[in-house]
Amino acid sequence: MTVRIATNPQKMEANWRVAMFGIANLFLSTERAFTSGTVPISPSELLIYLTVCVANVQKLMRERTIPDQFTATSILPREWVVPISRNAIASATGLPRETVRRQVEKMIKRGLLIEDCRGGVTPPAGVIDLLGLGPMLAPLLAEFTKTAEQLARIGVIEIHDD
Questions:
Q1: How far apart are CA 102 and CA 55, in angstroms?
Q2: N or C: which end of the chain has fewer CB within 10 A?
Q3: Phi-psi region of 94 (alpha: psi -120 to 50; beta: other; left: phi over 0)
Q4: Residue 61, pLDDT score
Q5: How far apart are CA 123 and CA 127, in angstroms?
Q6: H/E run at residue 4
């Protein structure tokens, strides 16, 4: 049996404020987790950093089944990491290109990002352990779960057994 999770557009519209609160609160929890971590990061740096991280694992996330050796914090082989250009970061975030360029250069100097030999930037190998990001996952998942439960309770999210 497969479980599928879907949104209900009618319930979403009818519960817009509650749904938006949950999503906004999850975003703010993420921002708090990163800015209070071992490496302080500004809101614009966080937006850039998360954009780079998402872009970098997109190839892996498109896999039907993620290989077990890549599901935790083990370092991904470089062929699985997709670098992202500064222009693509600007397009994805809506930040001005010059702001992205300056912020990325600062983040490279601080060790948050590295230039990739294929062009663009990536997080450095082992960044989860390097920056001590592991402990922030549990509280973020707890907040995500709380949000998902709240949205399921009011019918915005539906769980289907297929």
A1: 19
A2: N
A3: left
A4: 75
A5: 6
A6: strand 3-7
**Amino acid at position 15, single letter:** N
The pTM of the full predicted model, rounded to 2 decimals, is 0.78
Condensed to tens digits (0 to 9), the pLDDT of residues 100-154 reads 999 999 999 998 899 988 889 998 887 777 777 778 888 888 999 999 999 999 9
Instruction: Please determine, for residue 1, whether its predicted confidence score (pLDDT) is greater than 70.
Output: no
From the number of C-beta atoms within 10 Å of its C-beta (0-12, 13-18, 19+), residue 140 rates as middle
The full set of domain ranges for the chain reads 1-30+134-162, 39-131
- Round to whole Å and give the CA distance between 108 and 38: 17
At 56, the pLDDT band (50, 70, 90 cuts) reads confident
Q: What end-to-end distance do the CA atoms of the chain give, in Å?
A: 6
DSSP notation for 118-158? TSSEEPPTTHHHHTT-GGGHHHHHHHHHHHHHHHHHTTSEE
